Amino acid sequence: MDSRHITAIIRFLWTPLILSFIVLTIVLIVWASGDSVVARTITDGLIRTVLVIGLYIFIGNSGVLAFGHIAFMLIGGYAVAWLTMSPFKKSFALDLPAILADNQFPLFPSAIAAGLLPAIVAFIVGIPIMRLSGIAASIATFAVLAIFYTIYSNWDSWTFGASTLVGIPLYVNMWVALGWTVFAIFTAYLYQQTKYGLALRSSREDEVAARAAGINIPVQRLIAFVLSAFFMGIAGVLQAHFLGSLIVNGFWLGITFLSLAMLIVGGQRSLTGAVVGVIVVSTIVELLRQVEAGIQFGNFEFSLPGGFQELGLAVLMIVILIYRPWGIMGGHEVPWPFGHGKRILAGGFALAPPLPKDERK
Amino acid sequence: MTASAPIVITENASSDKLEVFDVSVDFEGLRAIDDVTLSINNREVFGLIGPNGAGKTTLVNVLTGFQKPTTGRVLLGGRDVTGWTPHKLGRNGLSRTFQAVRLFRDLPVVENLEIAAIGTGLGRREASKRSIEILKWMDFEHKAFDQADTLPYGEERRVGIGRALAMAPRFVLLDEPAAGLSDAECDDLMSIISKIPSNFGCGVLLIEHNMRVIMGVCERIHVIDSGKTIAQGSPSEIQNNPDVIRAYLGSKTE
User: Fold this and answer.
1) Could you say which of A21, A132, A240, A337 is the most buried, measured as most Cβ atoms within 10 Å of its Cβ?
2) Chain A window 282-321: which residues touch B at a Cβ cutoff of 8 Å?
3) pTM summary value
């Protein structure tokens, strides 16, 4: 493998490499500062990154705006609580079957299992829903969230009803969240480079032409829906092990709106947009939260009334939608800064650089 | 460049046929296609013409699965494919272009072609390779990485044809490919169309209003008017057919 070939591979992986590098840099700076409060904020932000990448895998590639993905986060979060809480703690709140009630399963395999459960659910509910298009599909996904939200709110023996379930092992810190974030970035990027990702994006651009080109749109959507549900589930798992508690009400409209806002502000048509959206929106929300809590100017304390976070976010969304309907990134990935070199297609097939106009012919 | 190098992608049986038997299509009482029968052979350029509203595009929609015929059958290589979905027909060797071109606008040119190749079941590696070959054949390789929505109109149409060819079709249906092209672009188009059968081993159904293009490349022509067949034959036969002249120009006296 010569150096030009290595360059071509780096170029191919440029977007996930740079995104991971940005995330890693933020984590390293916070780690070096030793500020544990900021570290928690960053961990929270990384979990949201996994969440929004999960959303992006489906929405970004299919162009179908889905309002119900938080259902998969809910399913993943509770599944991991059933698997990893100690039998002693489970006995206080839950009335589970013996195999779950009497056992405490190892953390990592439980996380994977709790990601797979929502993926399976997505597969089943996706078979009918993925045949729909446009607003009908959006509303149907929201109905899925409403169904699971209602079931989990009332399923006392498994979820402790509408009360807060506590006692989930705490192990998610900045580094664990970072690991999953990088994994999500690379998986989402590699998926969108596969033939399945490309086929689905073609249906986003033009459904009629995609069908004529031999693309089975419901099947392609289902693949993305299932993969997306896995990462939504993992975000639920990470949140459960980060906060140590779960409440069904935390998986409803608030987080649905926030995660969609992040994706739309950043730009729903690119992975870079998804990550940028989390960073920008989290930063703004965090600043507004601090101003709400009050900041000191000498002897003068200034504070905004409560609710400004939501208001600020809503105004930001409106401004973005008016001036940049496709978000901050406008559908672009991280650009390659080193000019026209040899390009490599996703299939590994290399193409010589196009000649500059004046040298042609 | 390599515009003259032949690239045979598929070796289809020379007896391959795309046939339509007694097809009619009704839209809520309006008969758009009335009992049309035609047959396109492998490796020929077959013209379908008719005045505006004659039902040409409806017929293409029937052939490609976007419109179910009210009555009649469509046969591909002797197999009854009536009522198949568009993507299934696409996978079985029927590809088309659109009057409105319908490129995947936000994607690069090469990916527009790759998608069609993927649609026939190829992996990305083979799909990229085939797409680049076709772009080279069309002398369009230098724009492989341009976003489709940045292309001028004539080039968009060319990419549309490339996309249809990337499916390595048994039959390719070109829906008014010359619409809006300049004379020079029409000449390029004619040279591309006439080379398709030998280089891709497929049949071509060409729907067109531009008579210079139709007469220049078609071996056989089928004329429909108000959904009905009014003539069939070679270009010279069609040019001199009184029914065709009447359909296009109207007549002073009946």
Assistant:
1) A240
2) none
3) 0.92
Which of B115, B167, B172 to mutate: most A Cβ within 10 Å?
B115
A206/B contact by beta carbon, under 8 A? yes
Q: Is residue A89 a part of any domain in this protein?
A: yes
Domains and CATH numbers, chain B: 17-104+169-242 (3.40.50.300)
Cβ neighbours, 10 Å, residue B27: 11
Q: Tell me, what's the ipTM?
A: 0.91
Rounded to whole angstroms, how far apart are CA atoms B112 and B150? 13
Question: Which amino acid would we find at residue A231?
Answer: F
Interface of A with B in 177-196 (CB under 8 A): 193-195
Nearest Cα to Cα of residue B235 among B212, B219, B246, B223: B219
Judged by CB atoms closer than 8 Å, whether chains meet at B143 and A354 is answered as yes
Total tally of structural domains belonging to chain A: 1
* Nearest Cα residue in chain B from A205: B104
Quick check: is A70 in a domain?
yes
Cβ of A346 under 8 Å from any chain B Cβ?
yes
Specify burial of residue B143 (Cβ count, 10 A radius: 0-12, 13-18, 19+).
buried
Q: Which two tokens stand for residue A26?
A: 């933020």
> In the predicted model, is pLDDT for residue B14 greater than 80?
no
Where do the DSSP E strands lie in chain A?
165-166, 245-246, 295-297, 300-302, 343-344, 350-351
Q: Is B61 on the interface with A (CB under 8 A)?
A: no
Comparing alpha-carbon positions, the chain A residue that sits nearest to B140 is A354
Match 């492998």 to its residue by tokens.
B42
Residue range A155-175, pLDDT digits in tens: 999 999 999 999 999 999 999
- What is the DSSP track for chain B? --TTS--------TT-EEEEEEEEEEETTEEEEEEEEEEEETT-EEEEE-STTSSHHHHHHHHTTSS--SEEEEEETTEE-TT--HHHHHHTTEEE--TT----TTSBHHHHHHHHHHHTT--HHHHHHHHHHHHHHTT-GGGTTSBGGGS-HHHHHHHHHHHHHTT--SEEEEESTTTT--HHHHHHHHHHHHHHHHHH--EEEEE-S-HHHHHHH-SEEEEEETTEEEEEE-HHHHHT-HHHHHHHH--S--
Q: Which chain A residue's Cα is nearest to B144? A: A354
> Is residue A333 domain-resident?
no
**A213 and B163 in contact by Cβ < 8 A?**
yes
The answer to whether position A275 is within a domain reads no
Structural contact between residues B95 and B165, judged by C-beta atoms closer than 8 angstroms: yes
**Tokens coding A327:** 């978000």
Whether the predicted pLDDT of B102 surpasses 60: yes
Closest-CA distance, A237 to chain B, in angstroms, reads: 34
User: What is the pLDDT at residue B13?
Assistant: 63
